[in-house]
Amino acid sequence: AQNMDEYWQKLQADILDHDLETQCGTCVGVSEGTLRYEERGGILKVVRTDNPNPVPRAAYEGCPARFCNYPKLNEFVFHTQPQNQLSGVVKQAYVGHASNEGVRRSGASGGIMSATLLYLLETKKITGAVCLRLGKNVPYKAEPILARTPEDVLACAQSVYSVSPVNTILEKLEHEEGPLAYVGLPDQVAGIRKLQMIGHPSVKHIQYVLGPYMGTQMTFEAIRSFLRSHKIHSEEEILDLKYRAGEWPGYLQITLKNGQVLRAEKFYYNYLIPFFITQSSLQLVDFTNELTDISVGDAWSPTFEDMRGGFSVVLARSPKAVDLLKAMQAQGHLTLQNISLEEALDMHGHMLDFKKRGSFIRNGWRKVQPDYGYRPAHIPRS
Description:
- Helix content is 33%, strand content 20%.
- The chain is an alpha+beta fold.
- The protein has an 8-stranded mixed β-sheet.
- The longest helix has 12 residues, at 186-197.
């Protein structure tokens, strides 16, 4: 029996024992019921269920936490290597927003991803999209759903700034009707690409991969602490939670069951980050979601911030992504202007540094380090 569960042992020895697991959900999603998450001290941990079957190989092979070879994955996904290691492969960069004001306002910045999913559904290029929906069953919890209708897609608009393992949904995807789009964070997307690389059936229907930039993420303890500062002692008091409510760049807004509304500007809410930042956001080196077809971030630049309303920076990485965005622009679904990759990177200099040097420095302090297949040639001591 010892050897029967070799992949569970490998998962423990290589990843879990070193606190490298990033809560992306991949190993649980393809574990065929042998693994699950359990919350311990505000942190999600992978644990073995009492299912007698061995943990499948894919649960180990698909995990992006320890071994995530970007050069190999770039070759597999894009058949080429990036011109610029800060951004990954990029065919064209844009700044823009959804043309429909309703869609634009409901998104976290410019509504680009919502508009794209709506267009893909409408044109029958997909039959559904994997996205994260906040408050479906519990007001403050986000869970992955397969959005089949425009209403479903819009219910998933907005950012979720606490840990939500999207890839647990993989256990359901093999027998769903495709083609599908998929929205996830960089480590979740890497898990999908690793599974596609080994030809796993759970990801065979995924045709379009989209995702937001991800710099930092907080554990749910951040919300609990924010509530405590307002003398609220349980998250059960929450009726509604929005991480990016109101006019872009938005604010955290929590509506309580007693009708009270708590708010914090995004700028001030960000002060909680150092205290509740997740291990994975300190560890991961991919900021711009390099393995997507289309990745989207906030367009942080004085020009766009002064214009208000919500602007996104959009990176199209594959030829089909460029075609899709061009078609949407031509049909009036998106308002886009081409920008250079340099301009796109300038909007997020601090976060690129936090990842592309910072994560390598921080990982260097660990006993066991993730292997991304590349590293900075030189980081000066300063």
